[in-house]
Design goal:
With about 650 residues, this protein is α/β, with parallel strands linked by helices. About 45% of the residues lie in helices and about 15% in strands. The protein folds into 3 domains: about 5-225, Class II aldolase/adducin N-terminal domain (L-fuculose-1-phosphate Aldolase, 3-Layer(aba) Sandwich); about 240-400, L-fuculose-1-phosphate Aldolase; about 410-585 and about 620-650, NAD(P)-binding Rossmann-like Domain (Rossmann fold).
Amino acid sequence: MKSLWDDNKTGKYKHNVMQLRVYTSQLLGQEPDLVLHGGGNTSVKVKETNLFGESEELLYVKGSGWNLATIEAAGFAPVKLDVLKRMAELEQLSDTEMVKNQRAAMINPAAPNPSVEAILHAIIPFKYVDHTHADAVVTITNTEKGEEKIRQIYGSRVLIIPYVMPGFVLAKKVYELTRDIDWGRFEAMILLNHGVFTFNNDPKKSYERMIDIVSEAEDYLKKQKAVVVPVRAAARENLLDLARMRQAVSRIKGAALIAKLDAGLKQVSFSNLANVTSIATRGPLTPDHVIRTKPIPVIMGKDLEKDITQYSQSYKKYFERHTDGQLTCLNPAPCWAVWPGYGTVAFSRGLKEAEIISDITAHTIQAIQCGEVLGGWKALPEKDIFNVEYWELEQVKLLKKGSSPVFQGKVALVTGAASGIGRACVKVLQAQGAVVAALDINPEITALFSQKEVLGLTCDVTNREEVRKSVEKTIRCFGGLDILVSNAGMFPSSKNIVEMNADVWNRSLALNLSSHQALLQICIPYLSLGIEPAVVIIASKNVLAPGPGASAYSVAKAGLTQLARIAALELASSGIRVNIIHPDAVFDTGLWTPEVLAKRAKHYGMTEEDYKTKNLLKVAITSKDVAALACAMAGPVFSKTTGAQVPIDGGNDRVI
């Protein structure tokens, strides 16, 4: 662990306490071995003049929901210091009441809720206080005779606090233990199975004490040869089983989930350990991780569905063992899995949360293996883990949960996604909660969408091998497939049959028909394992009302429609719905070049503007309109419909 303090950067903050607090907080937050995804907290004590011209002491402490790596001054909650200190003197206080009274003691009602450890920060008599969940330190405490090892490393230089539930109970315990001690004797405070506090009146010294304390723990691990050396194994992959696993966990959850496979060297090596079932199921690295990971993962065997069902049953028994009868049981689905031979898998309703779980998992499996070298990995007792998972503050959050976007946790694949209807479909699907694989022959697709939830893939859909690779990458990234919007197409230049060029004819059939068949064929095994799977085929008004000069296009789209109808018949038994959209005159797509538009308007003896609204309703049809219909077809509105053909054309008298 190295200090990242830069005097050149801090010089300009010399007389700005909050900027220095922000700076050192970010230094801590950007080191994942210290702080992971919202963990840890920092504070600074200041004197300010209030509205009445009186000087009062305040504690600016990290606010709930802020990440130390990116925190700004607005992320600190200003709380009256004397109130926090008086709260520490109370005999009892529920954490719900603590949060309420901390908020009542704030001088800025627009600020975030103070950290649940605000009282603890308040009673530490130094200006700057830093708290992390340092992996190296917690790893050592999570072993047999962990406290003894900590004393061996640090001697009397640190104050050691046995594990206590975070919140008021912890603050009260520290208050009672330290009322008559000289804090100046200590360089740090170590909370067993929890983390590290450092403190000083100088921000640099407090920060660098943290670095030094953690470095000593890292050095101890190295001397004990508690360093993980992954064992390389032959690469394995089973994407159908990954999709099957995702489906089974989603079924237990009662909602669609992302399944993020981490097949890195460290993850695969851990999954292959002979004793992985034992060591992976002893508990999390720190108790606060349980909120995201549950106490233990599911260990996958040969029968995936059976293993997941048994995990769910075991979780319910765990809840019954510890509930006081007043608690609401959380969903019993696992949050992560150890998949021997393949790595680890994180399950979540959103990609961001899945990545967080994956990061926590990576740090956990490292700590577990180090702990085994030190005499045996030993997490907190099950009851202590349960108390954090079912903390009253977490139970309150359950009551506040609102509804999720319609496609939350679902995986979609859209072809022809770089422009027009395809691009609009990607945007609407992602906005409604889905993660989306966006395929297009245009290489710009890889950088077209800024959201992590959109995977841009360059793919020539007429090349079966490229399609297969793109579908497999989608499964690899997201765990399955639920929605297919088969949209890629072209509109050849108008030619009468007698003038038709064989190359034009064949290219139209290849892209407008055959590519859709290949895509569907490759996707069906994964869709069969999807969550409420749906296929939306973008066909054309020309199927129902063809025009002269468009035989290459109309015949291909008619064949595509027939393919979709047969697919609806064949796939219904697998629960896959297949529906068809027949758009007309969608002029903000790549099919309608200025030349094509001018030629078609001339053919009908109309101006271009009149041609754009030559439907019964006299309205323009946009890509966004078609995308909205496609998403409706993929969602609950069409949940009991398959094989339908729906025009979106403003009303066409020939179709009607």
